[in-house]
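pls design
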């Protein structure tokens, strides 16, 4: 697994530090419960559309990119339909952008100041492409209100020790390896926070235009 201390930027460290903390406080005294399809409201079940395998976000990976496969294996699987470009993703993370039909599908995050080689194992993936969704239908661009109808109450938070990068977890989120980041256009934070003197800031309130900015899966 990648050592978060050698990664450029601090998004991964923030997701680990805050995301784990928020997961615990979102369901006090209990593990995160799996989402049962028959427990979802009828309106949600009707709106839900299971994505194709090539567009699915799961604990195993994003689309064709799977955690544990090598970069070379992914290149072979995608063939000439994909382009790979070294890029700096938001918050300064070093990454390879994987594009198809001129659009970035997802990013492979890799250690700071290194170069991703064909033999390297994929351990971190991130996407903000709204075509990708979990099997329950949650993905980038979805409003937090819509996501709450599927995954339960949202808890947002940031940690001033990690450059105040905001993260998001849901009360009934089925898998901790899938991590969400929120955003609200025109606002510094998607969450609405009260005054606090502490390092970790948490809230269940969010801006009316708050959406899921990106989804990350890590080994």
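designed seq:
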């Amino acid at each position: 697994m990648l050592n978060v201390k050698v990664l450029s930027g601090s998004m991964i460290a923030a997701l680990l530090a805050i995301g784990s903390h928020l997961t615990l406080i979102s369901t006090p005294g209990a593990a995160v419960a799996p989402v049962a399809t028959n427990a979802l409201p009828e309106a949600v079940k009707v709106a839900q559309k299971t994505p194709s395998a090539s567009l699915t976000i799961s604990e195993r990976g994003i689309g064709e990119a799977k955690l544990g496969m090598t970069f070379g294996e992914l290149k072979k699987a995608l063939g000439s339909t994909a382009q790979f470009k070294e890029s700096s993703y938001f918050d300064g993370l070093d990454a390879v952008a994987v594009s198809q039909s001129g659009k970035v599908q997802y990013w492979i995050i890799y250690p700071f100041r290194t170069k991703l080689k064909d033999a390297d194992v994929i351990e971190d993936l991130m996407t903000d492409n709204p075509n990708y969704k979990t099997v329950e239908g949650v993905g980038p661009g979805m409003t937090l209100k819509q996501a709450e109808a599927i995954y339960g109450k949202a808890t947002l938070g940031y940690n001033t020790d990690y450059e105040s990068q905001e993260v998001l977890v849901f009360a009934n989120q089925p898998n901790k390896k899938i991590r969400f980041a929120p955003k609200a256009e025109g606002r510094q934070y998607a969450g609405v926070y009260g005054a606090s003197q502490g390092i970790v800031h948490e809230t269940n309130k969010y801006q009316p235009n708050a959406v899921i900015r990106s989804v990350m899966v890590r080994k």
